[in-house]
User: Fold Aspartate aminotransferase family protein from Sulfitobacter alexandrii.
Amino acid sequence: MSPFSGNQELLARRRKVLGPAYSHFYRDPVQLVRGEGVWMWDAEGRRYLDCYNNVASVGHCHPEVVDALHRQAQRLNTHTRYLHDSIVEYAEMLAEVLPGDISVSNFVCTGSEANDYACQIARRVTGNKGFIVLRGTYHGATTLVRDLSPAIRPDPCPDYICEIDAPDTYRGVPSDDPDRFAAHHAAQIDSAIETLQQRGHGVAAVIVDSIYDGSGIFAPLPVYQQQIFSRVRAAGGLVIADEVQSGLCRLGDHYWGVMDSGVVPDIVTMGKPMGDGHPLAITATTPDIMQAYVDRGGEYFNTFAGNPVSAEVGKAVLRIVERDNLLGHVKDTSDDLFARLRALADKHPVIGDVRGKGLFIAAEFVADRATRAADAATCMSCVEWMKDHGVLVSRMGAHGNIMKIRPPLVFGKEETDLLLETLDAALARH
Assistant:
């Protein structure tokens, strides 16, 4: 009997009361009941190395985060229409680590809300309606940002949205030809701007990722973001940097991935890692943009966001990140992990490409390296086998052939050893 067969009853109950809209990982889903650091345990006591969940940024159930939440929950939890030290202190801490003049934070509960609110600000401040997004990306689940998320949008693209190519350096224009790469993507953004202007929408904003997840995990050359920023601003639009996944040190060189390109956006959105599992997200911008938003009739309130409990959780996460030098830790771990993963790809030709940055990594499975034909079956088989042997990764991509490795920031050398040993064993079966 499969060790996961006991989960089938719970899965049937879940389907009955939650409905078919929810999906789950793995053919035999895991029932997780406890977490600590980079580890999680299922209901039968089996331990799993978490190589996927970036939400638990400083580790599952970090005792300092749990203690901060517990202490404040015992005192008071209300909202931003009352004064509270913790909320102001957290915003001040964020201002210290955000790029450029971005120093005004508005609190929300999810990354979807953060991106939705950023789009509202952009439309009101610019007076324009149009948006530019990248093909295959995901920015959230509200009505507005679902339309701005080609990865999940089932309907035709609304005419106020233009899509441009992601910086796909594996199946698109390669990065080893920087002039051609720059020219191709400059033409893309110019065409999108012209189209939105011709349709009468203008450009409210472009939403950029610092690492493009939905389209296959690509870390762009700096010129990619630089061209987008300058062209959109020249057209009267703002730049929204979606740092919900790439932010808070995940890419290893800066707190926020957008800084890797030497540019400063107009709005930064943050989410998943900021609360280490607690629902905390932020839309941050400059004082001038926020003042322009208010001057044009903008206002913001959220019953649950910006509460003292969330603020204390956020403060604890930032303190841990700084004190434990997680930025440097990610860099060191990533350098080792990438080198060894590429060596593993040399051993197993089914891995056609290893890419990404920091602790945000893709291993693309191909049936043939010359044609780059996708091999989804082997990728899925490896992901499932690794889960059965105590290592959790996932897969993604239009063809389902990309293994996604994106662990908590505290992932280290011992965990790298186990991950690669298990992946090697999984690949040896094929």
About this structure: The chain has twelve helices and 16 strands. The first helix runs from residue 7 to 18. The chain has two domains: 7-58+325-428, 63-323. The longest strand covers residues 360-368.
